[in-house]
Amino acid sequence: MYLNLFTSFMKVGLFGFGGGLAIVRLIYDSIQDFASITPQEFTNFVAISQITPGPLAINVATFIGNEAAGILGAAVATIGVALPAFIIVSIVSRMLDKFQNNKIVQGMLSGIKPATIGLIGAAAVTLTIPAIAGEGRIGMGIIDKIGVDTAAGIGGFIQNSPVDIVSILILIATIVLIQKFNKRPIAVLIVMGCIGALLGV
Amino acid sequence: MLPLLRQTIVEDKGWFDNDEFIDIVSVCQGLPGVVAVNLATFIGFRKRGLLGSVVATFGVILPSFIIILLIARGFASIDDNSYLGGAMAGLRAAALGLVVIAIIQLASKVFDGPWSVLAAITSFALIALFKVNTVYVIIIFIVIGATNAVISGRRIKKADIKKADIKEKDSEPSVEREVK
Which residues in chain A are contacts of B52 at CB distance < 8 A? Predict the structure, then answer.
């Protein structure tokens, strides 16, 4: 297990181009063979990693390592993701100018750049079902308590819908608040978490 | 994160000037892996060699590592709580929102013609629809980018040679022949 964790996360460190969110799907693919982490758990890890300080990929690596094999697993996964950086950076830092001016290196980088959008899109697909149709829907307990007739009316509509309508509203609100009103992402995420907590499941 | 780093490295410590810092950041963003780890390794390496890069990298990893372990422990101790479940459901939805925003913002920066759009759609389709391993998809696009650079580089060289030929014929044809 430790070896699996180490090699998978080293792969992530070696091929993870394009920063945090582009790496998410790479991590998800790499751990499928050996770790029994459900999409819902994985999405929880990514979500928490976005509101905690520190690099996203490191946070997710620590989470998954810990879930799969305890504290030592967390250490192995985290070191695995950071290790390739030593090798790559120690080579590149000796020839910074050559690296920046090399046509082939620049070609590689410009080749991967648009593909990064596809990588993040694939990450979005991985997160979608747990995010808007996951187990434990927001507000169900409250609807039950208020005693709305579940066969009819808004309460029934929300309870019987195939996707979690409250979650979709939160998703839309998040996008609008950050994209249109330039609110700080972390603040928006914390507010959305609080709304979820107030409503319960 | 970058403003904080710039403040520490350029202004407080004076390790690099602003231009050097921008250079280092742009290189580290191009390298694979976690950008913050790349930066720490790079700066540590430049200042104090291999040991410096190990120390700097541990410095940037350790706080996240401890925080996440604490949160994971906390989670294990609270099972099936309605409020926690609600908070997580809210966070999951909002986290997906962040991913969507990242796509929108990156697309508006990177898309500069039909090829970049096609590349993004292809990489998405390969991974999400055809379940191709992400590593292979990344390698494919690196190879395409490198090949493209080599081909266009050759074209430029050929064009240069042709120009040189013309110049040669125009100005001093005898010199080259004498050398030969």
Answer: none
